[in-house]
Task: inverse folding
């Protein structure tokens, strides 16, 4: 059983606000309540955001045969077809009714770093097909990381840490940062029959920056254990990001900050969104922060490296690439 009719209200954090303590208070309240908030005045122009969405749409409008030439590889770079991902296997009858495109940190194939999971060369559409595409996406990747680092500084202060805690090399100095373009087909979701744009899930990493078009679809469930579960819509915000915390931050904070279940429920309209997933470096050990444990509240999660945690989560939610053995011919 569940209900999903109302819209939730989220705190808005302006990165241009000179009163950092106000931003910290707003963010802390949001992280304790739902783990979701809006970020405004982030310094990425609306004109450029519109260009990123336009380029994304151009890719998804290509013939399927063109898109399948760029099928995601074992580094999780490239195209993910409709139904490739199943985020909520207990409740979904098929996979997600969305297609996507992963773009990670660009590392040349001859660089020793490219041997690591989630690092390596990206796959790019040819210049003949989409001339400006790579340039636009690489610029957006850089801009979004800048915004994410600004948000992480406020999160650090909200956890009573030094502002530059997440700036360190082993944290966001050498991050696993992944841009994912998403396109939801114009279908009507039916939760009672297990049909979703994206199944219920929490994100894996530190934080996610989400830019959306003006089509409503994102829902959050603040209490995953409630019966019935209550799902609330999150309104799109023009020119801003919807930001949510990931599971690693919940582990770091010993469950004090929330990584909240969310999903996409479609109303029959096409929907485009752009997610930017921010995770720390491969060898970063995610363990309870000193400011988040006490005798009364000992660590709830064992330490784990970022790379090991992410690798398992991706494996659990994506189709085996062997199932597409004929798809790239």
Result:
């Amino acid at each position: 059983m569940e209900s999903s009719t109302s819209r939730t209200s989220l705190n808005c954090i302006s990165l241009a606000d000179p009163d950092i303590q106000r931003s910290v208070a707003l963010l802390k309240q949001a992280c304790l309540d739902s783990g979701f908030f809006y970020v405004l005045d982030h310094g990425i122009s609306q004109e450029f955001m519109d260009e990123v969405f336009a380029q994304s749409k151009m890719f998804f409008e290509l013939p399927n045969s063109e898109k399948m030439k760029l099928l995601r590889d074992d580094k999780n770079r490239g195209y993910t077809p409709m139904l490739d991902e199943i985020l909520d296997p207990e409740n979904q009858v098929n996979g997600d009714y969305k297609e996507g495109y992963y773009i990670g940190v660009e590392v040349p194939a001859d660089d020793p770093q490219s041997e690591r999971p989630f690092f390596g060369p990206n796959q790019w559409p040819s210049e003949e097909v989409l001339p400006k595409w790579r340039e636009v996406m690489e610029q957006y990747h850089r801009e979004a990381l800048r915004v994410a680092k600004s948000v992480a500084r406020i999160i650090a202060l909200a956890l009573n840490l030094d502002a530059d805690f997440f700036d360190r090399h082993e944290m966001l100095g050498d991050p696993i940062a992944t841009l994912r373009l998403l396109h939801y087909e114009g279908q009507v979701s039916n939760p009672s029959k297990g049909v979703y744009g994206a199944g219920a899930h929490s994100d894996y990493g530190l934080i996610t920056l989400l830019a959306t078009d003006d089509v409503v679809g994102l829902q959050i469930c603040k209490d995953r254990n409630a019966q019935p579960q209550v799902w609330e819509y999150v309104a799109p915000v023009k020119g801003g990001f919807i930001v949510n915390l990931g599971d690693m931050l919940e582990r770091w904070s010993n469950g004090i900050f929330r990584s909240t279940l969310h999903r996409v429920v479609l109303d029959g309209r096409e929907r485009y969104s752009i997610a930017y997933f921010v995770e720390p470096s491969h060898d970063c050990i995610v363990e309870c922060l000193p400011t988040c444990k006490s005798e009364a509240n000992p660590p709830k999660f064992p330490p784990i490296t970022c790379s090991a945690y992410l690798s398992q989560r991706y494996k659990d939610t994506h189709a085996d690439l062997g199932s597409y053995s004929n798809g790239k011919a």
